[in-house]
Sequence to fold (1155 residues):
Amino acid sequence: MRIEGKGLIDRAHPVRFSFDGTSYGGYRGDTLASALLANGVRLMGRSFKYHRPRGPLTAGSEEPNALVEIHGKTNQTPNVRATVQEIFDGLEARSQNRLGSLKYDLLEVNDLLAPFFSAGFYYKTFMWPRAFWESVYEPMIRRAAGLGRLSGKHDEGAYEKAWAWCDLLVIGAGPAGLMAALTAARAGAQVILADETPILGGRLASDGGMIGGEPALVWAAAVEAELRSLPNVRIMTRTTITGAYDNGTYGALERVGLHRPAKANLPRECFWRIVARRAVLAAGAMERPVAFPDNDRPGIMLTSAVRTYLNRYGVVPGQRITIFDGSETGRALARELMAAGVQVAGIIDPRPDASSLEDCPVHLGAEVVGSRGRLGLSGITVRKGAETFEVETDCLAISGGWNPTLHLTCHMNGRPRWAEDLMAFVPMEGAVPGLVAAGAAAGRFSTHGALAGGQAAAQGALADLGFKVPDIALPEAEDAPCQPRALWAVAAEGRAWVDFANDVTTKDVRLAAQENYRSVEHMKRYTTQGMAPDQGKNSNVAALAVLADATGRSIPETGITTFRPPYVPVSIAAMGAGGRGAGFAPQRLMTSDQASRDRMAPMIEAGLWYRPSYFPKPGETTWKEACDREVMMVRNAVGVADVSTLGKIDIQGRDAARFLDLVYTNTFSTLPVGRVRYGLMLREDGMVLDDGTSARLGENHFLMTTTTAAAGLVMRHLDFVHQAFCADWDLRFISVTESWAQFAVAGPKARALLNSMLDAPLGDVPFMGLASVPVGGVEARLFRISFSGEEGYEIAVPTRYGEALFRDLLARAETMGGGPYGMEALNVLRIEKGFVTHAEIHGRVTAFDIGMAKIVSAKKDCIGKAASQRPGLSGPERQQLVGLRSFAPLTAGAHLFRPGAVIGQAADEGYSTSTCWSPTLNCWLALAFLTDGRARLGEQVRLVDHLRGKDVVCDVCDPVFLDPDGGRMRA
Amino acid sequence: MPELIAKEAWQGQAAVTRAGLVLAPLQDRPIWSVALFPGGADGAATALESLGLGFPEPNRWVSAAEVRLVWTGRAQAFLMGAEPPAGLAGHAAVTDQSGGWAGVSLSGPAGPEALARLVPVDLRPGSFPAGAAIRAPVNHMSAVILRTGPETVEVWVFRSMARTLWHELTEVLARFEARATVAG
Fold:
């Protein structure tokens, strides 16, 4: 029911929305919950386990009951709190966790079966037969006990992530937060003021009152106007601070587009990381519900919530309201309701000695011990002394006291402190470095306490940061002393809910204690209390109070479970914003990229680079046809491949050669200028890190190449070795991978192709030699190296000429019967030649294993050498690199066994790492690691691949299948 | 012999204006890494005098006419816009990085706010003033970022990642523009 003239909603802007298919009206500024209540709708959801009818308990982000699905054209968002979701034209909300309609939920039968569903029931009930747990019981339970549904589709919505920086982050824009922000803003500090609601003012918007002799909201509006006028202040509404992290970093979730119709490119949410030098936690406090039998019916809500609906939204959630509250706020609510013309059917005040002077019935020393109403509250049972009586009511406001909203102070392992004088936990000072709690969040519940606390917190931060602290007169405000009170649970028979969100009752908590889950952490896990989307905000303290009572301990002795980030549910889409699809990682494109795509080459990703897989020709229907052709083209004519992706590191200095001797197993100081040498690098633990070639460009100048995948890894390794072991050496190095485009030209006609391109014919460049050659007026570097086994060159030009050189080379190669080759052919060529890649040097092999023990120099030390000589890292027990041949298809990742052995883990003698069909040798080839392999050349092994159903007997041979003497390379 | 055709990193890419911000590709230019050898600072300083430049302090860049020297790491700076002067050899490792980097400029008062979507460093003039330069990630890419005007910053990344940089920045601008239209 809407009350004329009340509330901060915008009555000039009516809004139409739907809930479960029914269209309703509300106003801009309404939440879904307030608008539905205004339309007389109290039933908004079904509870988690028992499918009890539920309506909103709160009016804020801690809401445990009123969770709904929001449906848009392209999205379906479950578990949205109706108390947070603002309405807009076209909003489509649906209830969730029901079978049938919300009113006639078939799973309501669970509530009748409640005696079987007590805490821990499934641990006991569904233990047998064991295999049934995963296949039968769990899916069944998940179907029945669940929350909202996902659409099963990709979330195509726009999301955003961002950073922000400030001197002072003020969390919460109630009186404490506004005062803190104002103080810091006037001092000239960079201020961020964040509040999770759309407006500033906090409880002032719900509770009214006076500040500085004027209505509190007038004061708040004046402060807001001043803050908005200052360039050093950033106000972030609809933004919840979700976590406190190291170095003053806070996570925050901003609802950017969730409260309006979808709009192209408008982020739905933004996940912020705010780096603040200091922070003030002015998050206020949360009211505690009271546990009494059937305290979960729609229509029963917190006193503070009823007050918010009345004063902020102009809505009363009932016609005959009762109030179960032992504080002055309950009385204030009663008077406000009556002033608005709403009938208050009674105040049930547990205090025996409070005033009974109100314009409505007041029952002192009384308690609510029961409620009625199938889909919504219709009456309550009140007990006063020995007497019980019924009161007809459709809305009951309850309050068991207040908990400071101190969650963020616990995010870095801090524990709150029990304040007996407040009957509440309060933040432990210094629990999060740089963060100070103020106002109700610090246990100061009066308006004056909030203003003074906010100002003091800001002043402290300003002084810390060296700002001049401005002198601001504190405005007058009420300063009623806090009356400590706590009403956790009413002693009465029946199920009394503690955790509404996860359907945990006081009985469950007592059962946990009875079954010796006496630790608060064990109780939590046994009952699942606090493990629902609201993370126990409404129930943690009450649950541990009940546990304390059941175990005969005090509350501080019982302790409290840990509050962890995030403070509110955060969608993964927001945290992962920008990471969907191509946003997952940068795409590195070679200069030849367009030329390859123009030839319809499918691109595959290799270490962020996109490389052509093969170059299909008309009529070729499979990749293998193209691959076989490209291999034979290289073997018989000439092929061109872009190898720019290999890591290139330019190393200079008088100690450059010495450095290479240190990082490579073999010696580079003896390498003549103008020559290239193959090098092997070990990790500190003695395993192979990477391999590649290094060229000596000058006496003190080398160019190292790495594999594509390990380029970054090797750079990091070199940096580490340099900084850790030889920081004072005359040595500098930098990646030049991006500065050069480099192309492999391989095959018997490689030299002829180059000669047709180069400005001057190629002179005598020996195998593993290097030359500077002019091509098209550009000075190129030519390396005579081969990864194919053919006469091979790699020609490098500055990146800007890469595309031109590639296209020109291809045109000429094609005229000569050659052409481009892709990664598939490149792989076959190197397997035929027995060259290793990271398929073989995968991090668990030694130089010995790959047959390169001889290039670990005996004359010098190198990184990893000592570790590589540990026992067990060489010898016949090692699995050693061998070749396998067969006429039947071989697969990589298969395991090797002796013929006749019983196939099983115990008989496993190794595995294959790379395989291919060799069009050159007309058989299948594999590289593999085999126990004592090098001594077993000529034997046979069985290759078994359980995944792909292969079982092949193959011949063990030398891994260099083709041209073992290297005559073709050196031609 | 015909000459090889040189291709700019941003060949054919036009500037984009959204939400009052101008994202513009920058022309390729000579870029050389100048990495001081131990004890090479004085000798390098003498050689750099011919360009009218001193070696920059960490997180700073200096310029003379169109030539810049940008701090890019410990004892390392990028010389942008000129060939290295004679006399540097022996005092510093000089390495050609030309063509290996692709740069864009982002101009407009809200530039730092837009970049805060991708860069975890406060680029507002108060903390990133004239003459500031920094190595920082742009989302997953490693970049060199410079303030080149009161409302302009430049972002340089590896040339191979130019498309990704452009894509991510234009996406940020699109979101930024959509936010601006619903502000309030």
The radius of gyration of chain B is 18 Å. Chain B touches chain A through 55 residues (CB under 8 Å).
